[in-house]
Design brief:
Strand content: over 45%
Number of strands: 33
Protein name: Lipoprotein
Helix content: under 10%
Shape: globular
Number of helices: 3
Radius of gyration: 20 Å
Structural class: mainly beta
Largest sheet: 6 strands, mixed
Distance between the termini: 38 Å
Keywords: Signal
Length: 402
Amino acid sequence: MVAWARKGRLMAACAVLTLAACASGKTSGVPSASRSIPSLGDVPTVQAFTQAPPFVEPHTRTVIEDVEKLAHPILIYEGKAPAEYELPIVSSRYYALWDTNDVHRASIYERDTGNLVREVSIPNDARRYLGRILFTGTDAFVVDSPDLADRNTETGKISRLDLLTGASTEVAPPAGLDWSYLPETIAEHDGTIVAMAQKPGTREPCLAKIEGTTASAITCWSGSLSDRLSIMPGHVSSLVWPSDDPDLCTQLHLTSLEGKTREMGDRRHCRSYDGVTLHGWDVWSSSDVGVISQSTVYADGSGQHLQLSRKNNQSGSMAVCGEATYWKTGFHSQGKRTYALMRWVPGMENVEMIFRTEPEFLLSPPRCNEGILSFDVARHYDPEFGTRSRIYYLDTRELDRQ
């Protein structure tokens, strides 16, 4: 298993399906849970996949070329490759490492000293695992996740752990909702925590904001499913698709923290996977029908229409960290596959390549927590050592000051 692949028992059912079809539950014979759903009151509800807005053919798209401006990431871990859910999200003060033999346990360390701060564990349930640890200040938000096979009957759990006192408090989802079964649908930016909740029985997504140990719904999507969100200043982008036919086109929706939602992109292509807004610009990616893993990155703003990549962006890899947008790309160098991290800020004349792997090494999508970008570099499987990896981090605030 490669360094950031979800553990096999989670994704085996999805090997031959699109990501949307997998998350829709069409591979499972387990009936959806059924129970009464309390009213969500005044929470805005978005009806996705209504008639498309009028398509306006963009003016000539300017292709932005890449320049090599390699940064110097700091190595924080080297050893047995973790699975995707085990990749530490490094913050300005802390990081966590999962127990290599127990999916229910992890240890939290001070980033700069390496001193152990707290041990984290969830009940030893064979059908659940410790899915995510996210930091804000001296708190950690811990996600307890069910196996994908149980997504129709089980939901996620979120707890807030005070790293100074060790006190842990479960965060209840907004009234009438459950937490998503997917651990990656929680994110932080500048102290703001958002997470995806879902309506019981239907798994229709609702975006929620967490303040302390209180969660409140921001908006919901009717007749849709979602498995991905990204956070940026003042907004959250979500990937949605119709729940009754996951093979239809996906949409990117941008939602303000006040609950106002609009669609991103121009519907030129069928599949949208990434989308952020930054400094008045929309940066997004899309790919053609039948293509999942690779897409093209575009940017629209100030009356300009830019193409920031060829069709070599890894779908789902885009993140805002600090003042810039980052994503993963792939290309061939001397006939061998190579991966890189790209960086762009509206107004820049070029896209910067800030990190590049050695040929035939693997690279995880970047993750951001408190302005710290972390990623995993792994060599291909070795019969003697298995898959080994190195986990690095970059302080994007230093890049922003350059």
